[in-house]
Amino acid sequence: METTIKIVKREKSWIESSAIEQLESVAKLGGMVRAVGLPDIHVGKTPVGAAFVTKGIVYPHIIGNDVGCGMSLFSTGIARKKFKVSKVVKKLEKLQLDAMEPCCEIIPELEDIDEQFKRKLGTIGSGNHFAEFQEICEVHDNDELSKLGIKRGEVYLLVHSGSRSYGEHILRKHIEKNMGGKGLLQGIEGFNEYMDDHKRAVFFAMGNRMIVASSVCNHIGTSESRLILNSVHNGVSSYRDEFGEELFIHRKGAAPSDVGCIVVAGSRGSKSYIVKPSENLSDYAFSISHGAGRKWSRFSCKERLENVISKRAVRGGDVGSNIVCSDKKLIYEEAPQAYKDIERVIEDMLHENMITLVASLNPLVTYKG
Ligand SMILES: Nc1nc2c(ncn2[C@@H]2O[C@H](COP(=O)(O)O)[C@@H](O)[C@H]2O)c(=O)[nH]1
Ligand SMILES: [Mn+2]
């Protein structure tokens, strides 16, 4: 069967040819039906910002080690007027999520997993994982926003985190057992085992984001951290096509279009967006961009930025946000300049009628692991 390849881009879009080559190479794998490159696509072990539809086979290496990674938006119950940025920064500088008591009784699906993984619950992880206080800066669809219970004038918390060392363990186990990127044929030994482990990792990541949100909110003095939006951007899910055939959507840095509104994250120095995906995006593997996507590789960031802009400017960004991060290296690696322009990613999706806008969010304080 011929694989359909679709790349969502326009002339102005910033997409490296190497990312497209990676997508085309993955699209050649057996059982591949459709490959979609979203506007945030960039190079990874397999391309990030992409969705792949297969028939009769699942590829754990496409999903990678951070199974279940996603974005969750929580209400905090704090009025923007009462949120004093400098005070929150000072409080968060003392927060050590790694040193907190593990708490996993609240997730029954995870009862049987090893203690070493349970201990990681409630920790955010390194790299670009974050917990970010945000305010609504522009409303595009008032009705949709009030249906979500989101109010202008209040502070929200966006948490981006995944399944920590548990996801890594799952990937290694299945790759070792099944010889790398060969994939798991539906119906053979190993297929159901991966799907069960994958399901647990998705619960793990979701639980993790909830515990992080509750710890961060408690730490700054609010008992509220109510989940409003949740989306998983690294994972596999199945659906039936119009002929009743079961197909598998692999999402690697791609948000689902069929779970309601989604937060598309920008960077700690730019806006993020709440968007409503359009219905029946089957040509796009029922997926939309999950973020802005990297423009620069991690290792090139410090060299590019160090002598060009001041340390103060690296910490801030277009919208003058604030970062709490004990790892100096990460401040460069995760600088807003290292990411593509979120406005362009959003414009590309609007141009294809993939989404409508609900609201945009400004970062106030970003906590990185
Ligand atoms: N609002 C923020 N968005 C951020 C930050 N750091 C990264 N990002 C965005 O999130 C996605 C996540 O990428 P993933 O492939 O690792 O899941 C990334 O593309 C950026 O657009 C931040 O500090 N704040
Ligand atoms: Mn992620």
Automatic annotation (TrEMBL):
GO terms for molecular function: GTP binding; metal ion binding; RNA ligase (ATP) activity; RNA ligase (GTP) activity. Its cofactor is Mn(2+). Mn(2+) 2 binds at residues 160, 233. GMP binds at residues 128-132, 233-234, 272, 290-293, 368. Gene3D superfamilies: tRNA-splicing ligase RtcB. This is 3'-phosphate/5'-hydroxy nucleic acid ligase. It comes from Peptoclostridium litorale DSM 5388. Pfam families: RtcB. Its EC number is 6.5.1.8.
